Backbone:
């Protein structure tokens, strides 16, 4: 049986939570391998809705869940999320949740810096969630991060705090802020350490043992490929690599363990926050897509920008992430449109592109070249077989496959877990 890696193939918010939940029922282990608690996954199970930002989606069903070293961990956000789902009847115990000992921590000073920078950026704002994710990754790369394993040795943290504070004190002074309160930071870490440490494990070791035993591992990505720090719409991106290849380095398994790469793709396109969006619709059609798709960010509550499906961007995401098959979600949102458009290229100041150029000025100037298809009046909501879909909806799915150069492995027709048309089983490869 293959392992499966699930990633978003647009700007995030593609409906990964439902798909991961659907797959996790058959996985032995679910792993988060990058990002922080700026990622939001919504799971609808029966009459209960779970909104997760940090915990792997498998935790809700009791599947062994792991947070890999590629994640930056806010321990206070972790505690709050564990308590929140406990109130919904889901108990999170150390035998069900393992956190990599080498995870860097998001600290209060990271949140401070995130907000100070964003407020001072003027027109250069990139729309961060102000949760400290970017500054935490910077400290990881700068070799001054405090990690989960350090919580067991806080009395020996002096040299690392010297490095950390030398950096942050200079930045804070530039914003007119006082130096880092080291005593308070140590007190905060001491207080949270007892909660976090029981979950701390050598995740790389556990995953390698699971692989040797032939267990099925499901890697759960956060955000989307177009927010990848290398391959996304820079600088309007997140601070980690969101492509499937990160599953290896962000968990402690080799690249051969990534397995079937399932790219989650919404049947139209959305984006939260600032940045280029060639197919954005700032009209009644865009508003209709947003209302029908309930397009509000899981983490921030911000209204998502909406537009037609962009086959160019998805094709690009598939290429850089090695996607094996896609899961097409929210097809039902397109029910009732007389015509549906698909972006098949861009015009950038008179030059045709079949990919999104890298420079921000060119991206801002990109005008979509559309192909128009007839819509369908019948409903697709809740369909679980091809026979239940209108012929024109099937035609739309097939055309999407052709344009993105990748087969559709499954189609989601509602937030409900079982409202899914399975074309190819990712775990069977």
Residues:
């Amino acid at each position: 049986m293959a392992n499966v890696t699930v990633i978003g193939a647009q700007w995030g918010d593609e409906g990964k939570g439902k798909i991961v939940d659907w797959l996790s029922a058959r996985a032995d282990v679910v792993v988060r391998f990058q990002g922080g608690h700026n990622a939001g996954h919504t799971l609808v199970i029966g009459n209960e809705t779970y909104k997760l930002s940090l915990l792997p989606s498998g935790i809700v069903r009791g599947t062994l869940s792991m947070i890999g070293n590629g994640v930056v961990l806010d321990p206070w956000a972790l505690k709050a999320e564990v308590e929140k789902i406990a109130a919904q009847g889901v108990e999170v115990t150390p035998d069900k949740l393992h956190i990599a000992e080498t995870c860097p921590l998001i600290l209060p000073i990271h949140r401070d810096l995130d907000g100070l920078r964003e407020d001072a950026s003027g027109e250069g704002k990139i729309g961060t969630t102000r949760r400290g994710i970017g500054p935490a990754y910077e400290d990881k790369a700068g070799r001054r991060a405090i990690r989960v394993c350090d919580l067991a040795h806080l009395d020996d943290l002096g040299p690392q705090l010297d490095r950390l504070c030398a950096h942050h004190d200079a930045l804070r002074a530039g914003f007119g802020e006082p130096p880092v309160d080291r005593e308070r930071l140590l007190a905060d870490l001491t207080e949270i350490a007892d909660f976090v440490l029981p979950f701390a494990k050598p995740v790389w070791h556990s995953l390698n043992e699971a692989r040797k035993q032939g267990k099925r591992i499901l890697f759960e990505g956060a955000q989307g490929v177009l927010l990848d720090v290398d391959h996304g719409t820079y600088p309007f991106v997140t601070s980690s690599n969101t492509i499937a290849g990160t599953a290896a380095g962000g968990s402690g398994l080799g690249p051969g363990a990534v397995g079937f790469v399932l790219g989650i793709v919404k049947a139209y396109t959305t984006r939260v926050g600032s940045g280029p969006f060639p197919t954005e619709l700032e009209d009644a059609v865009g508003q209709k897509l947003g209302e029908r798709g309930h397009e509000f960010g899981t983490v921030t509550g911000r209204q998502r920008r909406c537009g037609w499906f962009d086959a160019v961007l998805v094709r690009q995401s598939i290429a850089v992430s090695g996607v094996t098959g896609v899961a097409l979600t929210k097809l039902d949102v397109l029910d009732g449109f007389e015509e549906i458009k698909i972006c098949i290229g861009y015009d950038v100041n008179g030059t045709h592109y079949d990919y999104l150029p890298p420079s921000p000025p060119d991206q801002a100037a990109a005008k979509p070249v559309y192909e128009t298809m007839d819509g369908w009046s019948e409903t697709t909501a809740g369909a679980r077989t091809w026979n239940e879909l209108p012929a024109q909806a099937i035609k739309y799915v097939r055309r999407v496959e052709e344009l993105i150069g990748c087969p559709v492995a499954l189609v989601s027709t509602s937030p409900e877990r079982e409202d899914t048309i399975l074309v190819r089983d990712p775990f069977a490869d």
Remarks:
- The mean pLDDT is 93.
- Residues 4-101+199-257 form a domain with the Adenylosuccinate Synthetase; Chain A, domain 1 fold (CATH 3.40.440.10).
- The chain has twelve helices and 18 strands.
